[in-house]
Amino acid sequence: QVQLVESGGGLVQAGGSLRLSCAASGNIFSVNAMGWFRQPPEKPRDLVASITSDGSTYYANSVKGRFTISRDNAKNTVSLQMNSLKPEDTAVYYCWSTVVVNPLLGGGDYWGQGTQVTVSS
């Protein structure tokens, strides 16, 4: 019913930049929080950054000052601008959103398929 489609990612040298984008589509009544998680190899998936529908943001300490999250409520999209990338930023990045399909049932969590970000030293 709801799909999150990611774009961006790839291979970049340390100090470089990448931009991830994600678009939510399908049977959507409203989109609440949107954000990005990441999962390095053999490690758990952790929240990197999130943004509410009114623009309030959260950043993990490890990315503060380097990553910027933004969204377009009209298009149900969220982006993550990643600057000054470090090798430790290497991970699969997942788009996440809480979407309301039926307002009588509340919202549910949806995930993108994941996109690889590799930062070489």
What does this entry look like structurally?
With 121 residues, the chain is mostly beta strands. The model has no long low-confidence stretch (mean pLDDT 96). The protein has no helices and 11 strands. 31% of the residues are buried. The N and C termini lie far apart (41 Å). Strands 2, 4, 5, 6, 9, 10 and 11 form a 7-stranded mixed β-sheet that branches.
Strand elements, count: 11
Kindly, what is the distance between the CA atoms of the first and last residues, rounded to a whole number of angstroms?
41 Å
Secondary structural class: mainly beta
Largest sheet: 7 strands, mixed
Give the H and E element order.
EEEEEEEEEEE
User: Helical stretch count?
Assistant: 0
Uncertain stretches of 5 or more adjacent residues? none
**How much strand?**
over 45%
Q: Quick one: overall form?
A: elongated
Q: What is the gyration radius calculated from CA atoms?
A: 14 Å
Overall pLDDT level: 96
Percentage of residues in helical conformation: under 10%
Outline the secondary-structure elements.
Elements lengths: L1 E6 L2 E4 L4 E9 L3 E10 L6 E6 L5 E3 L7 E6 L4 E6 L8 E12 L3 E6 L3 E6 L1
Parallel strand pairs: 2-11
Antiparallel strand pairs: 1-3, 3-8, 4-5, 4-9, 5-6, 7-8, 9-10, 9-11
